[in-house]
Amino acid sequence: MAVKMVIEPIFEADFKNCSFGFRPKLSAKDALDRVRKACNRKGNWVVDVDIQGYFDNINQEKLMMLIRNAD
């Protein structure tokens, strides 16, 4: 929990407002609402992505370097 409290605000700052997966205070219902609104407009895309094992494959050295440099 301590790590989450430290790194969550760092990464949250870089997420686009159209990203809903595992985000604080956002849910699948929020994503569906956004999709419904987008479907009423032409020229929009809806993309659903689920990368299996994503966090199992993060380069730990690079992650730690980015966290150290986040100050």
TrEMBL record:
Segment forming the signal sequence: none
Single GO MF annotation: RNA-directed DNA polymerase activity
SUPFAM superfamilies assigned: DNA/RNA polymerases
The name this protein goes by in its record: RNA-directed DNA polymerase
Residue runs in coiled coils: none
Annotated InterPro entries: DNA/RNA_pol_sf, GrpII_Intron_Splice-Mob/Def
Keywords of this entry: Nucleotidyltransferase, RNA-directed DNA polymerase, Transferase
PANTHER family: NUCLEAR INTRON MATURASE 1, MITOCHONDRIAL-RELATED (PTHR34047), PROTEIN YKFC (PTHR34047:SF8)
